Amino acid sequence: MRSGPSGSSRRPTAPEPSPSAELVGRVFREESGRALATLIRVTGDFDRAEEAVQDAFVTALERWPVDGLPANPGAWITTTARNRAIDHLRRDRRLVEKAELLGRETAMASDADDVERLVEARDEMTPLQDDRLRLIFTCCHPALPADARVALTLRTLGGLTTPEIARAFLVPEPTLAQRLVRAKRKIRDAGIPYRVPPDHLLADRLDGVLRVLYLVFNEGYAASRGDALVRQELCAEAIRLARVLVTLMPDEPEALGLLALMLLHDARRYAREAEDGSLVLLEDQERGRWDRARIAEGAALVDRALRMGRPGAYQLQAAIAALHDEAARPSDTDWSQIVALYGALAAIEPTPVVELNRAVAIAMAEGPAAGLARMDHLADSGLLDEYLYLHSARADLLRRLGRNDEAATAYKRALTLTTNAAERRFLTGRLAEVTRLN
């Protein structure tokens, strides 16, 4: 092998991606859901629509470096994908009757004149925006399994590839691909309508959509498996999709509340991990590393949502997160107000996990013994026996009370339940601490 002037061996390096390729990738992530929603409406077929949109982006990779960036990349992609879909339908006479084919072509042609105007008019509820809203509700239909809803939402609206989603949720790519295939087949075979639900079903169906987005965010913010504590790509996608939902449904306070909650939690992500990758508890975080712009945006969204006078679980959780984020020091946290908010949350959502969080707040407001009494009651019920955070929270209060033998037992139980390496490092360190002090 030849050596360079310095005597060191030169190794071939992979070429840097061209700015055009990077730009097309960014446009794909931002605009593919919008284009796909329109194409699904006019073709009536997920796979045909995906193929047409992917072809449009391949064409963009070929054309944009030569012709330059179009004035409206999103409209260009949608129009090009529509034209590709028309070509595919014309070539395929086996799947549709000629009359149906001509009818769809007519519908597409009528859309063509309006595509650019619709893409540009993003501050108003337009037919194109209706398409994305329809797609969100279709992907999150209650007839689909929960894991399929998440995968299909990320694939169609998030613009993530099948390998990316498989890596994010640590499942084999063929498994994830089969989930997507089954979900699309279920939509087709069950005749799941591509629409926003009627008013009498909207509240229940919106709740399902919000749960899917929050599940995506939670998996990113506190990864259930793997080495990393935070998977930022999942947090970013959940926040982006929540912004889409808020844009499309600006008068839904729970959509605002969910976006606020995500932003207020995500604002702390840089301070949540130590240099060795282990977890840093909220009270020990360096607050100067928190993202103040996100905190301000999240707090403003909470205020906007609560002023609508329809409080819900996401709004209350966001209000709690805002109280944490707005405290300059841990000692400035208004724990009494947080206890009250958890009480209101428990009235809306009376779950053991909410009661656990209220017990933690009571421990901070009234002392560890008061919080521990409530946690022991939860532990005795057995409802959260397989829940990692019950045992880690109990262990922490027992440690604070100097009951190190019991704390060690609780930490050991928590360690049997975690599959995340960062949490394991943290718990192992605390177990060593209480064992040493014993």
Report what the structure shows.
There is one protein chain. By secondary structure, the chain is mostly helical. It is about 70% helix and about 0% strand. The chain has a two-stranded parallel sheet. Helix 2 packs across helix 3 (about 75-90), helix 11 (about 230-250) packs antiparallel against helix 12 (about 255-265) and helix 15 (about 335-350) runs antiparallel to helix 16 (about 350-365). It is elongated, with a radius of gyration of 25 Å.
The dominant shape is elongated
The percent range for helix content is: 55-70%
Succession of helices and strands: HHHHHHHHHHEHHHHHHHHHEH
Uncertain spans: 1-19, 112-128
Kindly name the structural category. mainly alpha
Distance between the termini: 61 Å
Number of helical regions: 20
Largest sheet: 2 strands, parallel
The count of strands amounts to 2
Biggest β-sheet: strands ordered side by side in the sheet: 1-2
> Which percent band covers the strand fraction?
under 5%
